[in-house]
Amino acid sequence: MKYMMWEQLLESFKDTVLFQYDCHTNQIIYYPSSLFFYLNEEQMPKTIHPYEQDQLRSLFKEQSLYQNGQFYLRVLSQYKQELWCTLQYQYIYEEKTYIVGKITNVDRLFRQMKYFVEKSERDSLTGLFNKMTVEQKISEQLKICHSGMLLMMDIDGFKDINDHYGHLYGDKVLQWLTKRLQDVFYGDILGRVGGDEFVVFVKDIEHYHSFTSKIENLIHELKDEHLEFKQLSISIGISRYPEDGESYIELYDKADQAMYDVKHDQQRNYNYYQITKED
Is the pTM of this model over 0.85? Predict the structure, then answer.
C-alpha cells in the first residue's frame, strides 16, 4: 500500500498516532503528520509533568532496557488541554535500531473510569467518602503523617427526627450538617460511616487550642442555627494518633468509646478518649 494511502487511512483514526524513531540519527517520524498533541523542542510529545517527560526522554534518548512496553502519559493537546494517552513501543533490530510504536488518546475513557471510581467512593446522599473509602484514605494518611486526631460524631436524637418528621426530612438534616462539616474541616478527610455517623481525620495539628476551639464553635453554631423543628446538637468522640492507636480500627474504636461517654454526660458535647481500668 502506498504511503499516501496509509496517510489517508491514519487520518481517519484521529485518536491514534504511529511513530518511528531512528536510534542512530535521533530522528522521529509521526504518521499521520497532523498530530493531536504538541511537540517539544526535541520533537517528542509535550507533557507538563517532568516525570513523564523523563520517561519519554529515557525511551528515545537513553534507550530503554526493555524490548517493548507501554506507559501512560498526559500530553498537551493542540487546544492546550491535558489529554491522557497510552504510549506503546517495540524495538526493531535490523541494519539500524528503530523504535516503533503508537500513541493513543484514551482521555475520554480514562475520565469516564475516573468518574465511576470516584462515584463508587462517595456516599450517594452527602457526597462524602463512604465507609470503606474513608477507612482507606485515613489508613493511607496514617502512614505519612506524624500525628492527628480522629473524630467520631453523630446527631443527638436523630431517630426521633426521622420518626416525627420523616426520612426525607432526616436526609435534609444530614445534608445540612454535611455542608457545615465541610466548611469547618475543609481540607481534612471527612466521611459518612453510618446513618447519622460521621468520621473526620485531622492531621499534624500544630495548635491544639485552636483545634478545640474549632470543635466548640461548631457545636455552638449548630445550637444557634434553628432548623424548622428544633436546634440540632451532635456528640463527638476524639482519639489521638499515635497515642491512642496506630491503625484506623484502633482510633475508630477509641473515638467511638469517647463518643459513647459523651452520650452519658450532659455537660459537654465532645470528649477525648481516656484510658480506663478495663483498658
Answer: no
Whether the Cβ atoms of residue 23 and residue 100 lie closer than 8 Å to each other: no
Unique residue bearing C-alpha cell 445550637? 223
Q: Cα–Cα distances in Å, from 199 out to 152, 185, 193, 227, 237?
A: 5, 11, 7, 23, 10
CA distance 42 to 266: 70
What are the beta bridge partners of residue 93? 97
Q: Which residues does 87 contact at the CB level (< 8 Å), separation at least 6? A: 45, 56, 59, 70, 71, 72, 73, 101, 102, 103
Please answer whether residues 269 and 221 qualify as being in contact, where contact means their C-beta atoms are separated by less than 8 angstroms: no
Query: pLDDT of 65-123, one tens digit each?
Result: 668 889 999 999 888 889 999 999 999 888 888 999 999 999 999 999 988 988 899 99
d(CA 107, CA 98): 28
> What gap in Å lies between CA 252 and CA 120, rounded to an integer?
22
